[in-house]
Design goal:
93 residues, 37% helix, 17% strand
């Protein structure tokens, strides 16, 4: 992906299919441990959204990449809008 997204001075990486790096979004929102990516991905609303989106999408709406050059949790635009942004906004003043 060639489009760079910068939020609050933090570059948000995207994977090869365009999903957004949740770890970068978390850092841009202040990095509060209480709102860490691993907590978001364990919520019922997040997992419900994945279940709802998965049958309608060609690619998985969420992907975890371990190690390598771009580790982290990557989310589709739909998951970012419906879950990550509201979850992370509570840390932004």
């Amino acid at each position: 992906m060639n489009q760079l997204l910068v939020v609050e001075g933090v570059s948000v990486r995207r994977d090869s299919v365009g999903r957004y790096n949740l770890n970068d979004l978390h850092r841009a929102a202040g990095g509060n441990e209480r709102h860490s990516p691993n907590r978001l991905t364990r919520t019922k609303s997040f997992n419900g959204s994945i279940s709802e989106l998965t049958p309608n999408m060609v690619l998985a709406p969420a992907d975890v990449q371990w190690g390598g050059g771009m580790p982290g949790t990557y989310l589709s635009k739909e998951l970012v809008y419906s879950n990550a942004i509201p979850f992370l906004l509570v840390t932004v003043h």
